[in-house]
Design goal:
single chain, alpha/beta, 8-stranded parallel β-sheet
Length: about 400
């Protein structure tokens, strides 16, 4: 019997490699990629194909564009219920306080999530997950944070992890126990951190449910010193940290998180230059979330020019959640980042591939290069800009996950 062929040659394509300093090859249809199992073995111009790959199974991509599979590096994809009714209330003139008094806001999501079983949470998340996969996404970060008690936080994380058993996708989980103060701890923020957040963090880590630790540092959530208590425990457990910071005001959360070597600081609309410089020094990624900016009708945009000035990498993500960003389209997130924040098309694509991987601490994906995971997206497009400029249109031709077409 002959040897089993494990190598696949993708030819007649336009490769946007998204490697640092080299966003694309010729984009003239002469590019080629060799996959060996779940890994990229070679990429270049077909005329330069090494002899060792000439026996590979060949797939002709008809001149289509190939990019790394998009990575959604900030989502809240697992939750119970929805918030459509309060969305309608706000449109009809209800204030935030009126919505809250009517049982809306995060309180309603917490209640629905606590009432949901693990199976319910998985079933509810799958359609949202499928929407992202349909746009080529290969890796998705999912946060806890709608339980705000130990039992439900763990259940959310278990449900997120279980999604890999239902779909061909990589899931990375972030513990977001410091997301909000539940009603039963109203006015006792520090006690909540001590009684619920930190014990839940330790329990989730012991169960192997956490890839990173996140927190919401904001006037309506937690102060920097309270977040630091959580980060101290995370560091003691050997877990990397991330932060929701400077979304509605500037409390210095991003600068504080940079002191912990944070993987990313997310939202950051009110971030100042000191915070940007601290992120640059720490190698902390800025995660831009235009869906929340759009939904909340905010006016303060992230400091894109300052981030560029200091060389802070910018990721782009959906922030998919039931309240402030009910969006499950990575393509729309790219378009919004460019339209609302003047992020370039190349920055938007890098922000959902190479830089998104960096925001999750992943070094094996987000680029098309030898040694990387063979997570790819094949598009009915000629140039990367086509993925950013269209609205409500999905040009995905084929998704490749771990080398499987």
């Amino acid at each position: 019997m002959g040897a089993i062929v494990t190598q696949t040659l993708l030819k007649n394509c336009r490769v946007a490699s998204m490697t640092a300093g080299g966003a694309a090859y010729g984009l003239d249809g002469s590019d080629a990629i060799v996959m060996d199992g779940d890994t990229i073995a070679w990429v270049g111009v077909l005329a330069d194909l090494p002899m060792e790959y000439t026996a590979a199974e060949t797939v002709d991509l008809g001149g289509r564009l190939v990019t790394p599979a998009p990575i959604d590096c900030h989502t809240h994809l697992v939750f119970g219920g929805h918030r459509a009714l309060e969305f309608e209330m706000r449109l009809n003139g209800a204030s935030y306080e009126e919505v809250a008094r009517a049982g809306g806001g995060i309180v309603s999501t917490v209640s629905a999530t606590r009432d949901a079983s693990e199976a319910d949470l998985i079933a509810g998340a799958l359609p949202r997950l499928d929407a992202l996969i349909a746009e080529g996404v290969g890796t998705i970060e999912i946060k806890s944070g709608y339980g705000l008690d130990i039992e439900t936080e763990l259940r959310m994380l278990r449900a997120a992890r279980a999604l890999e058993q239902h779909r061909d996708v990589s899931i990375k989980t972030s513990f977001l126990g410091a997301h909000a103060v539940p009603m039963d701890y109203s006015g006792r923020d520090d006690a909540f951190i001590s009684d619920v957040c930190i014990p839940a963090l330790r329990a989730a880590h012991a169960e192997g449910l956490i890839d990173a630790v996140d927190a919401f540092c904001e006037g309506i959530a937690f102060q920097p010193d309270q977040v630091a208590r959580v980060f101290d425990v995370a560091r003691g457990l050997g877990l990397p940290v991330k932060i929701h910071a400077e979304q509605l005001s500037n409390l210095g959360g991003a600068k504080m998180a940079a002191g912990y070597g944070a993987l990313s600081a997310d939202h950051i609309e009110y971030l100042d230059e000191d915070g940007v410089a601290a992120m640059a020094a720490a190698g902390t990624v800025a995660v831009i979330l235009p869906g929340a900016f759009y939904t909340l009708r905010e006016e303060q945009a992230p400091p894109i020019d300052l981030l560029r000035k200091h060389g802070v990498p910018m990721a782009v993500a959906t922030d998919a959640n039931p309240g402030s960003s009910p969006m499950t389209s990575i393509l729309l997130a790219m378009n919004m980042a460019s339209t609302l924040f003047r992020v370039t098309c190349e920055e938007a694509l890098a922000g959902t591939t190479r830089v998104a991987a960096q925001a999750l601490g992943l070094t094996d994906r987000g680029m098309i290069a030898a040694g990387m995971r063979a997570d790819l997206a094949v598009w009915d497009a000629e140039t990367p800009a086509e993925l950013v400029y269209r609205i409500g249109f999905n040009p995905l031709h084929k998704r490749i996950f771990g080398g499987a077409l």
